[in-house]
Amino acid sequence: MPSHTTLPQVFTALGCMRFRPYLCPAATAWMALNFALPLANITWRRRCAKSCPEDGGSWGRWREALCALVRAFACTGVTWRMVLRMFAAERGAAGRARMDRNAHPAVAALDYINLSAAPGLIMLAFKPLRIGYALPLQLVLTCLGCARYAGSVCSHPGAQPPQLRPLLRAAARAMDTAALVLHPLLPQHGPRSHSGTADCVSLLVLLQLGSCLLPALYKAHEELRLFELHQWQRAQHGLPLECSRHEHVYAAAELLPSGRAACLWGALLLVILWEVAVALQTLGLL
Known about the structure:
- By secondary structure, the chain is mostly helical.
- The chain has one domain (3-282).
- The protein has 13 helices and no strands.
- It has helices at residues 3-19, 25-51, 57-74, 78-94, 96-102, 105-115, 118-125, 131-145, 150-154, 165-179, 196-236, 247-253, 260-282.
- Helix 8 packs antiparallel against helix 11 (196-236) and helix 10 (165-179) packs across helix 13 (260-282).
- The model has no long low-confidence stretch (mean pLDDT 75).
Protein backbone atom coordinates (compact mmCIF):
# COMPACT_ATOMS: atom_id res chain seq x y z
CA MET A 1 0.00 0.00 0.00
CA PRO A 2 1.59 3.29 -0.98
CA SER A 3 2.76 5.61 1.77
CA HIS A 4 0.90 8.62 0.34
CA THR A 5 -2.32 6.66 0.95
CA THR A 6 -1.55 5.11 4.35
CA LEU A 7 -0.04 8.15 6.07
CA PRO A 8 -3.20 10.28 5.88
CA GLN A 9 -5.11 7.39 7.42
CA VAL A 10 -2.57 7.17 10.25
CA PHE A 11 -2.97 10.88 11.02
CA THR A 12 -6.76 10.57 10.85
CA ALA A 13 -6.66 7.57 13.21
CA LEU A 14 -4.49 9.48 15.69
CA GLY A 15 -6.93 12.38 15.56
CA CYS A 16 -9.86 10.02 16.18
CA MET A 17 -8.12 8.45 19.17
CA ARG A 18 -7.27 11.82 20.72
CA PHE A 19 -10.64 13.53 20.18
CA ARG A 20 -12.92 10.48 20.37
CA PRO A 21 -14.83 11.69 23.48
CA TYR A 22 -15.55 15.05 21.81
CA LEU A 23 -16.54 13.95 18.28
CA CYS A 24 -19.94 15.26 17.25
CA PRO A 25 -21.90 13.43 14.51
CA ALA A 26 -20.67 15.86 11.81
CA ALA A 27 -17.03 15.37 12.87
CA THR A 28 -17.50 11.59 12.94
CA ALA A 29 -18.90 11.68 9.40
CA TRP A 30 -15.98 13.86 8.25
CA MET A 31 -13.43 11.45 9.76
CA ALA A 32 -15.22 8.50 8.15
CA LEU A 33 -15.06 10.25 4.78
CA ASN A 34 -11.32 10.80 5.28
CA PHE A 35 -10.96 7.04 5.75
CA ALA A 36 -13.29 6.07 2.92
CA LEU A 37 -11.66 8.10 0.14
CA PRO A 38 -8.18 6.48 0.39
CA LEU A 39 -9.73 3.00 0.68
CA ALA A 40 -11.89 3.62 -2.39
CA ASN A 41 -8.81 4.82 -4.25
CA ILE A 42 -6.87 1.66 -3.32
CA THR A 43 -9.73 -0.60 -4.44
CA TRP A 44 -10.17 1.27 -7.72
CA ARG A 45 -6.43 1.22 -8.47
CA ARG A 46 -6.06 -2.50 -7.80
CA ARG A 47 -9.09 -3.44 -9.89
CA CYS A 48 -7.79 -1.41 -12.82
CA ALA A 49 -4.28 -2.83 -12.43
CA LYS A 50 -5.68 -6.37 -12.77
CA SER A 51 -8.01 -5.67 -15.67
CA CYS A 52 -5.74 -3.25 -17.61
CA PRO A 53 -2.12 -3.82 -16.54
CA GLU A 54 -0.78 -1.92 -19.58
CA ASP A 55 -2.15 1.56 -18.81
CA GLY A 56 -4.07 1.20 -15.55
CA GLY A 57 -7.48 1.53 -17.18
CA SER A 58 -9.84 4.20 -15.88
CA TRP A 59 -7.67 4.82 -12.79
CA GLY A 60 -4.70 5.57 -15.04
CA ARG A 61 -6.77 8.05 -17.03
CA TRP A 62 -8.47 9.79 -14.12
CA ARG A 63 -5.94 9.53 -11.28
CA GLU A 64 -4.74 13.12 -11.70
CA ALA A 65 -8.30 14.48 -11.62
CA LEU A 66 -8.90 12.41 -8.48
CA CYS A 67 -5.73 13.78 -6.86
CA ALA A 68 -6.79 17.33 -7.70
CA LEU A 69 -10.17 16.64 -6.07
CA VAL A 70 -8.49 15.21 -2.96
CA ARG A 71 -6.28 18.30 -2.69
CA ALA A 72 -9.29 20.59 -2.95
CA PHE A 73 -11.21 18.43 -0.45
CA ALA A 74 -8.32 18.60 2.06
CA CYS A 75 -8.12 22.42 1.89
CA THR A 76 -11.79 23.32 2.29
CA GLY A 77 -11.43 24.75 5.80
CA VAL A 78 -13.91 22.29 7.30
CA THR A 79 -11.08 20.47 9.05
CA TRP A 80 -9.87 23.74 10.61
CA ARG A 81 -13.25 24.49 12.17
CA MET A 82 -13.67 20.96 13.51
CA VAL A 83 -10.17 20.76 14.98
CA LEU A 84 -10.55 24.11 16.73
CA ARG A 85 -13.93 23.06 18.10
CA MET A 86 -12.50 19.78 19.40
CA PHE A 87 -9.49 21.56 20.93
CA ALA A 88 -11.91 23.83 22.79
CA ALA A 89 -13.94 20.84 24.00
CA GLU A 90 -10.80 18.99 25.12
CA ARG A 91 -9.44 21.97 27.04
CA GLY A 92 -12.83 22.65 28.61
CA ALA A 93 -13.22 19.05 29.77
CA ALA A 94 -9.69 18.69 31.15
CA GLY A 95 -9.38 22.16 32.61
CA ARG A 96 -7.24 24.74 30.89
CA ALA A 97 -4.91 25.42 33.82
CA ARG A 98 -4.16 21.72 34.44
CA MET A 99 -3.54 21.04 30.73
CA ASP A 100 -1.21 24.06 30.50
CA ARG A 101 0.83 22.80 33.49
CA ASN A 102 1.08 19.22 32.31
CA ALA A 103 1.73 19.74 28.61
CA HIS A 104 5.41 19.48 27.62
CA PRO A 105 6.76 22.16 25.22
CA ALA A 106 7.61 19.44 22.68
CA VAL A 107 3.99 18.21 22.77
CA ALA A 108 2.74 21.77 22.38
CA ALA A 109 5.11 22.27 19.41
CA LEU A 110 3.83 19.09 17.74
CA ASP A 111 0.24 20.27 18.28
CA TYR A 112 1.16 23.58 16.66
CA ILE A 113 2.73 21.84 13.65
CA ASN A 114 -0.37 19.69 13.25
CA LEU A 115 -2.57 22.79 13.46
CA SER A 116 -0.55 24.34 10.63
CA ALA A 117 -1.57 21.42 8.36
CA ALA A 118 2.08 21.12 7.29
CA PRO A 119 2.16 17.28 7.51
CA GLY A 120 -0.96 17.04 5.36
CA LEU A 121 0.37 19.52 2.79
CA ILE A 122 3.64 17.57 2.51
CA MET A 123 1.76 14.31 1.96
CA LEU A 124 -0.48 15.93 -0.65
CA ALA A 125 2.63 17.03 -2.55
CA PHE A 126 3.48 13.39 -3.28
CA LYS A 127 0.13 12.41 -4.74
CA PRO A 128 0.45 11.24 -8.39
CA LEU A 129 -0.22 14.61 -9.99
CA ARG A 130 2.34 16.09 -12.37
CA ILE A 131 4.19 19.10 -11.04
CA GLY A 132 2.94 21.37 -13.82
CA TYR A 133 -0.59 20.89 -12.48
CA ALA A 134 0.23 20.24 -8.83
CA LEU A 135 2.27 23.33 -7.99
CA PRO A 136 -0.18 26.08 -9.07
CA LEU A 137 -3.17 24.14 -7.72
CA GLN A 138 -1.52 23.43 -4.37
CA LEU A 139 -0.28 27.00 -4.02
CA VAL A 140 -3.76 28.43 -4.62
CA LEU A 141 -5.37 25.92 -2.24
CA THR A 142 -2.72 26.57 0.43
CA CYS A 143 -3.40 30.31 0.30
CA LEU A 144 -7.19 30.07 0.10
CA GLY A 145 -7.81 26.95 2.18
CA CYS A 146 -5.08 27.17 4.83
CA ALA A 147 -3.28 30.51 5.17
CA ARG A 148 -6.46 32.57 5.40
CA TYR A 149 -7.43 30.66 8.57
CA ALA A 150 -4.11 31.43 10.30
CA GLY A 151 -5.54 34.41 12.19
CA SER A 152 -8.51 32.37 13.45
CA VAL A 153 -6.25 29.51 14.51
CA CYS A 154 -3.79 31.72 16.41
CA SER A 155 -6.55 33.69 18.16
CA HIS A 156 -7.76 30.41 19.67
CA PRO A 157 -6.35 29.74 23.19
CA GLY A 158 -5.51 26.14 22.26
CA ALA A 159 -3.00 27.27 19.63
CA GLN A 160 -0.79 29.22 22.05
CA PRO A 161 -0.41 27.50 25.43
CA PRO A 162 2.00 29.32 27.79
CA GLN A 163 4.83 26.80 27.34
CA LEU A 164 4.76 27.29 23.54
CA ARG A 165 4.95 31.08 23.47
CA PRO A 166 8.71 31.33 24.24
CA LEU A 167 9.42 28.86 21.41
CA LEU A 168 7.32 30.85 18.95
CA ARG A 169 8.96 34.11 20.04
CA ALA A 170 12.46 32.63 19.66
CA ALA A 171 11.63 31.14 16.24
CA ALA A 172 10.19 34.46 15.01
CA ARG A 173 13.26 36.37 16.19
CA ALA A 174 15.54 33.83 14.49
CA MET A 175 13.67 34.29 11.20
CA ASP A 176 13.80 38.08 11.57
CA THR A 177 17.56 37.86 12.03
CA ALA A 178 17.97 35.57 9.01
CA ALA A 179 15.81 37.90 6.90
CA LEU A 180 18.26 40.76 7.49
CA VAL A 181 20.51 39.10 4.89
CA LEU A 182 17.92 39.70 2.17
CA HIS A 183 16.41 42.89 3.56
CA PRO A 184 17.95 45.25 0.93
CA LEU A 185 16.82 42.96 -1.93
CA LEU A 186 13.17 42.53 -0.95
CA PRO A 187 10.23 44.95 -1.31
CA GLN A 188 9.80 47.04 1.82
CA HIS A 189 6.67 46.74 3.96
CA GLY A 190 5.56 48.17 7.25
CA PRO A 191 7.12 47.16 10.58
CA ARG A 192 6.19 43.70 11.83
CA SER A 193 4.08 43.39 14.94
CA HIS A 194 5.95 41.53 17.69
CA SER A 195 2.92 40.31 19.64
CA GLY A 196 2.49 36.63 20.45
CA THR A 197 -0.43 36.29 18.04
CA ALA A 198 1.53 37.97 15.22
CA ASP A 199 4.45 35.58 15.75
CA CYS A 200 2.03 32.64 15.72
CA VAL A 201 0.35 33.77 12.47
CA SER A 202 3.61 34.45 10.62
CA LEU A 203 5.15 31.12 11.63
CA LEU A 204 1.95 29.24 10.79
CA VAL A 205 1.86 30.71 7.26
CA LEU A 206 5.61 30.04 6.87
CA LEU A 207 5.04 26.36 7.70
CA GLN A 208 2.16 26.16 5.24
CA LEU A 209 3.94 27.84 2.33
CA GLY A 210 7.16 25.93 3.00
CA SER A 211 5.27 22.63 3.13
CA CYS A 212 3.77 23.49 -0.24
CA LEU A 213 6.86 24.72 -2.12
CA LEU A 214 9.83 22.75 -0.75
CA PRO A 215 8.36 19.29 -1.57
CA ALA A 216 7.35 20.68 -4.98
CA LEU A 217 10.99 21.49 -5.77
CA TYR A 218 12.04 17.97 -4.81
CA LYS A 219 9.22 16.49 -6.89
CA ALA A 220 10.23 18.60 -9.90
CA HIS A 221 13.71 17.04 -9.72
CA GLU A 222 12.25 13.54 -9.50
CA GLU A 223 9.84 14.08 -12.40
CA LEU A 224 12.64 15.47 -14.54
CA ARG A 225 14.73 12.35 -13.87
CA LEU A 226 11.82 10.04 -14.72
CA PHE A 227 10.97 12.00 -17.87
CA GLU A 228 14.57 11.81 -19.09
CA LEU A 229 14.56 8.05 -18.43
CA HIS A 230 11.29 7.71 -20.35
CA GLN A 231 12.72 9.64 -23.32
CA TRP A 232 15.86 7.48 -23.29
CA GLN A 233 13.77 4.29 -23.28
CA ARG A 234 11.74 5.54 -26.28
CA ALA A 235 14.94 6.36 -28.15
CA GLN A 236 16.33 2.88 -27.39
CA HIS A 237 13.25 1.33 -29.02
CA GLY A 238 13.44 3.59 -32.05
CA LEU A 239 10.41 5.64 -31.08
CA PRO A 240 10.19 9.42 -31.49
CA LEU A 241 10.69 11.50 -28.37
CA GLU A 242 7.48 12.40 -26.58
CA CYS A 243 6.29 16.00 -26.64
CA SER A 244 5.08 16.86 -23.15
CA ARG A 245 2.96 19.81 -22.06
CA HIS A 246 5.29 20.08 -19.09
CA GLU A 247 8.54 20.47 -21.01
CA HIS A 248 8.89 24.10 -19.89
CA VAL A 249 8.51 22.96 -16.28
CA TYR A 250 11.19 20.29 -16.73
CA ALA A 251 13.44 22.86 -18.44
CA ALA A 252 13.08 25.08 -15.38
CA ALA A 253 13.75 22.09 -13.10
CA GLU A 254 17.11 21.59 -14.83
CA LEU A 255 18.16 25.00 -13.49
CA LEU A 256 17.39 24.06 -9.88
CA PRO A 257 20.41 23.24 -7.69
CA SER A 258 21.00 19.77 -6.32
CA GLY A 259 22.98 18.25 -3.47
CA ARG A 260 24.31 20.59 -0.78
CA ALA A 261 23.47 23.63 -2.87
CA ALA A 262 19.80 22.58 -2.76
CA CYS A 263 19.88 22.74 1.06
CA LEU A 264 21.30 26.25 0.92
CA TRP A 265 18.71 27.41 -1.61
CA GLY A 266 15.97 25.72 0.43
CA ALA A 267 16.99 27.73 3.49
CA LEU A 268 17.05 30.88 1.34
CA LEU A 269 13.53 30.10 0.10
CA LEU A 270 12.31 29.77 3.71
CA VAL A 271 13.67 33.23 4.50
CA ILE A 272 11.87 34.65 1.45
CA LEU A 273 8.65 32.90 2.49
CA TRP A 274 9.01 34.38 5.97
CA GLU A 275 9.12 37.85 4.43
CA VAL A 276 6.05 36.94 2.33
CA ALA A 277 4.17 35.83 5.47
CA VAL A 278 5.14 39.01 7.33
CA ALA A 279 4.14 41.19 4.37
CA LEU A 280 0.75 39.48 4.07
CA GLN A 281 0.12 40.04 7.76
CA THR A 282 1.31 43.65 7.64
CA LEU A 283 -1.03 44.36 4.71
CA GLY A 284 -3.95 42.89 6.65
CA LEU A 285 -4.44 39.92 4.30
CA LEU A 286 -4.24 37.30 7.09
